[in-house]
């Protein structure tokens, strides 16, 4: 039986043939868009020049606020600086790897990527310390901290990433994370809430339990300068109308919007189409447009999907973080760390473990 997360499970007629394997983090032009698209994806070059105007010329208020720290942090956008993890799997691998495995690890270790908070690695009593350390790291980099909260009870419905906390402990763990974030008010943060939780709920039959758990996590994690995205599946899973229904069941008050393509491989163009469809449906259903923005995972989208979700061969890293965006999609982010396995499939180790072969394959074009 095809796993419901498989991009092939509900893939449209355009499928694999409509995608190319040429997208890498070196791209400076947008992916091929479908002819029906009337919007434009905003792209940036690798660096953003800061223009200093002398001789009495005016400097914009937003620029002054950014220089002197007097304004609230802006929402994530093209050009946002996300933190680079000092202790990522790639960074750790780079201390012992050799040859192409070292080149791949070094490349990935330098990329802004989200940190996944899980109770297995950061349990109650340690999660707050981890967030405090990550906030200090982001502060030193003058960066936005990017986090994934991934500890929901019955997580992943028994699949490769099964685990999570029990019902009583989950809010305790989330509150510890929230307290650490509140103690670092100067560090802006992006938080992706529980990947796959809603999209899997219909298959797992636990939507009634999921909704209050997710709602309580959102309520606990809200703070000024934190931008929360509730996971919204991806373009080859549920139709946009169904995913909208699931998101609306939780309610998007207090969130910036929804994340898409987390840990998946769909091309950025497909995810932009999907994000717009979900956002349009949310707004049509009464959700305020301020709560219907998207954050897209492009960590492994460079070759598009081949119909598999678990360690598919031949994939590539996608567009670098904070290089894409438009009026609905705030920006893109490497949410799934490339080089970490999806699970014991296609030759890979357990989910979340560093896999040098995957790192080498994913970066083969970007390292040229």
TrEMBL record:
Binding positions for substrate per the UniProt entry: 116, 234, 237, 264, 309, 336, 340
Keyword Disulfide bond in record: yes
Example GO molecular function: hydrolase activity, hydrolyzing O-glycosyl compounds
Residues covered by region (Disordered): 1-37
The entry's keywords: Carbohydrate metabolism, Cellulose degradation, Disulfide bond, Glycosidase, Hydrolase, Membrane, Polysaccharide degradation, Signal, Transmembrane, Transmembrane helix
Enzyme Commission number(s) from the entry: 3.2.1.-
Bilayer-crossing regions: 43-68
Biased composition (Low complexity): 24-33
Taxonomic superkingdom: Bacteria
Catalytic residue positions: 156, 196 (proton donor), 342 (proton acceptor)
Pfam families listed in its UniProt record: Glyco_hydro_6 (PF01341)
One example of a Gene Ontology biological process annotation: cellulose catabolic process
Family: Belongs to the glycosyl hydrolase family 6.
Name recorded for this polypeptide: Glucanase
